[in-house]
Amino acid sequence: xxxxxFCVFCLSLFxxxxxxxxxxxxxxxxxxxxxxxxxxxxxxxxFLRIHGVKKMxxxxxxxxxxxxxxxxPVGTIRFVTPVPKDIKVIPxxxxxxxxxxxxxxxxxxxxxxxxxxxxxxxxxxxxxQIDCDxxxxxxxxxxxxxxxxxxxxxEKGTYLLSTTIRLHQLSAEKxxxxxxxxxCYNTGNLRDYLAVNSxxxxxxxxxxxxxxxxxxxxxxxxxxxxxxxxxFERGQxxxxxxxxxxxxxxxxxxKAPHLYQVVRTHSLASPDPxxxxxxxxxxxEVKVDEVTASDILHIQSLIEEERPEIHRQVVIxxxxxxxxxxxxxxxxxxxxxx
Length: 338
What we know:
The chain has helices at 2-17, 42-50, 103-120, 139-156, 202-205, 293-306, 321-324, 329-335; strands at 30-33, 37-38, 55-65, 71-74, 78-79, 88-95, 127-131, 160-165, 179-183, 219-224, 227-233, 236-241, 252-256, 259-262, 266-268, 278-280, 285-290, 314-317. With 338 residues, it is α/β, with parallel strands linked by helices. The two termini are 39 Å apart.
């Protein structure tokens, strides 16, 4: 009888946590690094140290179509300062889904370019992550790309392959990788003027929670600490503002806690070098979406009800002084489950 009860207990525990949670490789506090120049300032170094960060998912480059619709690397990172010696680097490559028609050549080019960049910068790597917003219509091509990359990595030795998992992808077949990072950010539509918070909101996350328990791929989870300023004209999205100083009362008037109105026509610098700038006109509105520690902890509690072990590894998006400084150290330790 005791043996029977023990077996029932084990089966119950197995069904609640899932065997897929047991094989997440070397879970540790982690961060994404998503800039084109690798340079760490004192605040970022301190963040890594006090929170025991052991992994950095570093975006190496993006793959986007050129004028002939051929996949090309863009935004390649440049390493200015060395990566701390006690931190593991996982290269990340973002692949625009329109490039998936060139799977065979693309896999070879990605692996070769990542390997060359790692060698050039004296980085020892044994894992690669691919980021792609694939859908059912591009699933076959994306999975073929992952299989080809995995085969090429296996020829180099013991390499892990991971991928990002967006909430809408939880209802699809699991990709052929070792594990996934569930992206709990950019959950809403930033172009929607009426969206409560396009970065992270319970309204956008809750419909997908029931799929977490049965999703049979090992998962960890990534949470945002960034914000963005969204420019709207008569309720229509125009741009993400990078340089707007909303505290300047000669240019902006606060209409609501997260909404500002332009009170004087002016221009802001544009990231497009061929542009003369972005014109903001009187009456335009700037909507500010941001995430607090309380927002993240609330979503964490909802996710853990469905998948208790997913927070063995938390990844913060992303390591950037202005963003990480908004979260108090004790709050960040709570998010990291330390």
